[in-house]
Amino acid sequence: QVQLVESGGGTVQPGGSLRLSCAASGFTLDSYYAIGWFRQAPGKEREAVSCISSNDGSKYYADSVKGRFTISRDNAKNTMYLQMNSLKPEDTAVYYCAADPWIPTATMRSWKEYDYWGQGTQVTVSS
Q1: What CA–CA distance (Å, rounded) separates 75 from 66?
Q2: I need a surface site. Which of 16, 65, 75, 96 has the fewest CB within 10 A?
């Protein structure tokens, strides 16, 4: 059974940090898989936060998180991560991890391309 299980969300003050983890089971989350982190705030569409393509390993970061967030993967642990630093109130959202065996750089920002999804984890940035 293919599954992605997220952890690491919570409430943090502005300027704080969180690291989201997403553990895969039922398949090997190796470099052939595109991975992505998406978020959705109330009343807003789901948006790509950061992604890694499957064809050449290109990374994407939304302009709003560049320099603050870092996406990574640990193939040995079958896990992907999103390190979030200098968090802002506008980062508040439900965060989802996603994976798919083949998504090229051109389309990796589209959530519709991904077949495997985590359950979502709430991140709240508030003083």
Answers
A1: 24
A2: 75
Q: How far apart are CA 62 and CA 29, in angstroms?
A: 23
Q: Which amino acid is at 42?
A: P
For the stretch 80-117, pLDDT in tens is 999 999 999 999 999 999 999 988 888 999 999 999 99
Tell me the β-bridge partners of 21: 7, 81
Q: How many angstroms separate the CA atoms of 2 and 111, rounded?
A: 18
The label of the residue with tokens 């983890």 reads 21
Digit-coded pLDDT (tens) for 39-63: 999 999 999 999 999 888 899 999 9
Q: Which amino acid is at 83?
A: Q
